[in-house]
Specification:
Elements: E1 2-7, E2 12-15, H1 20-33, E3 37-40, H2 48-59, E4 62-66, E5 71-76, E6 84-86, H3 91-103, E7 108-111, H4 122-129, E8 134-135, E9 142-145, E10 151-155, H5 161-174, E11 178-182, H6 189-201, E12 204-208, E13 212-218, E14 226-228, H7 233-245, E15 249-252, H8 265-271, E16 275-279, E17 282-286, E18 294-296, H9 304-312, E19 316-321, H10 333-343, E20 347-350, E21 355-359, E22 366-369, H11 374-383, E23 391-394, H12 406-412, E24 416-420
Parallel strand pairs: 2-15, 3-14, 6-7, 10-11, 18-19, 22-23
Antiparallel strand pairs: 1-23, 1-24, 3-5, 4-5, 7-9, 8-9, 11-13, 12-13, 15-17, 16-17, 19-21, 20-21
Helix pairs in contact: 1-2, 1-6, 2-3, 3-5, 5-6, 7-9, 7-11, 9-10, 9-11
Length: about 425
């Protein structure tokens, strides 16, 4: 599916969708608790990544059904014979549930699509092999055999925080104890904080150590019957950037005390000179005295594509730095973001781990390739605020990975577009 945008943002308001990162963690913790738990997601259509986690959890002995009122019920169910975990293109699903399946002692086949078989996994596989797990291959698709033992796991922290989260889920699933030690500095640390908080809600006993975490057990007495998934700061960022570059946009349903790292979008936009106000969970971004900025995205890598559009809309040269890990996402996001900007006439330099963008000039219309990456689709839509019209986004259906209703919300802030179906 291709989208042709004929008008960009003119201001308005939208409600935040349920946070994908929080939803993954809520469903996994609920399924592993062995209890019936109701999880409130609201009315938003379930993204492809969350759908992948739900179908994989059902292969690991959970029954997860929608009640039809925005609430999903997770309850225990028998393990199916010969479980097959199809992770789709969801790196979170694979990295979280691979250690979980191993902790359950289940022989499982794992598969995936898109770039997922190419994305980093070797350090997690190495750690699991050291704890009794056998792999038929080191690259998807593969089958695992054995039962993950406890003890001390050593992992780098600068490749994927999801390795640490996956092992924390696994130790919770086994009901045992274990320790995770980092051999390098941890990046995206807030995502591990989210995992720890979710597991503590479900009775896990987790503490910090000098170089990582120790889990000493779990208490089933504290498993909640109902939980709600908070609003998504990552996807809200695209709409807030639109507001900062055009007319005020308000995103409702956001928790300003959230552990989500992309809550930093508020301070980042203020650093670019935008006016950002917060009142009762309503976050509004509007233009101000816009200026160039340097942003370290090591803790907020998902924000880089839309921040690149922000940089293109302000005078001066901005730098988005410490971004090397973005080359290992759904696309090589440093390259695909630079390609998007270049296609639209922006001045951008792609470095090994950074982008340098000289902004303040109108962009031109044209045709942008999504590179099968939902974050690039969002960035392209935001670029329409800078005069990049008409703008065709090829492969815009990649947005369903995280927000199937993105363009419906885009219309609420003034965006005009039409769909062009592709034929093969």
């Amino acid at each position: 599916m291709n989208i042709v945008i004929t008008r960009g943002c003119t201001g308005g308001s939208v409600d935040a969708i349920p946070a994908k990162a929080a939803a993954h963690r809520a469903f996994i913790a609920a399924a592993l608790s062995g209890r019936q738990v109701d999880i409130r997601l609201g009315d938003a259509e379930v993204s492809q990544d969350i759908a992948a986690t739900l179908r994989c959890l059902e292969q690991l002995g959970a029954r997860i059904v929608s009640r039809g009122d925005g609430v999903w019920r997770s309850s225990p169910a028998p393990l199916p014979p010969e479980p097959l975990l199809d992770c789709g293109e969801s790196g979170s699903t694979l990295r979280f549930l691979l250690p979980v399946a191993a902790a359950l002692g289940v022989d499982v086949c794992f598969t995936g699509a898109g770039r997922l078989p190419e994305r980093p996994l070797s350090d997690l596989i190495r750690a699991m092999k050291a704890h009794g797990i056998y792999f038929s291959d080191d690259k998807l698709p593969f089958k695992i055999h054995g039962k993950l033992s406890g003890g001390r796991f050593e992992l780098p922290g600068n490749v994927s925080s999801q390795y640490i989260s996956g092992l924390l889920f696994a130790l919770y699933a086994s009901g045992g104890s274990g320790e995770i030690a980092l051999t390098t500095r941890l990046e995206s640390s807030r995502y591990v904080d989210m995992t720890v908080a979710a597991l503590r809600t479900f009775g896990a006993e987790i503490g910090r150590t000098a170089d990582g975490w120790r889990i000493t057990g779990r208490s089933d007495r504290t498993v909640p019957e109902h939980i709600a998934v908070e609003g998504d700061w990552s996807n809200a960022a695209a709409f807030l950037v639109c507001g900062a570059l055009s007319r005020p946009v308000t995103v409702g349903g956001l928790d300003t005390n959230s552990l989500q790292p992309d809550r930093a979008i508020v301070d980042i936009l203020r650093g670019f000179g935008a006016e950002v106000t917060i009142e009762d969970g309503q976050v509004t971004a509007a233009p101000g005295a816009l200026r160039a900025a340097t942003v370290d995205v090591a803790e907020t890598p998902d924000l880089l594509p839309v921040l690149a559009i922000m940089a293109a809309g302000v005078p001066g040269t901005s730098r988005l730095v410490n971004a090397a890990r973005l080359r290992l996402k759904e696309s090589d996001r440093l390259h695909s973001t630079a390609q998007l900007l270049s296609t639209l006439g922006a001045k951008v330099t792609e470095l090994a781990d950074a982008l340098e963008i000289t902004g303040g000039f109108p962009l031109r219309g044209g045709t942008a390739d999504s590179c099968n990456d939902h974050r690039i689709v969002m960035a392209a839509a935001a670029a329409a605020t800078l005069g990049a019209l008409p703008l065709t986004i090829n492969g815009a259906d990649a947005i369903s990975k995280s927000q199937p209703g993105f363009f419906s919300d885009y219309a609420k802030i003034g965006g005009q577009f039409h769909t062009v179906q592709t034929c093969f």
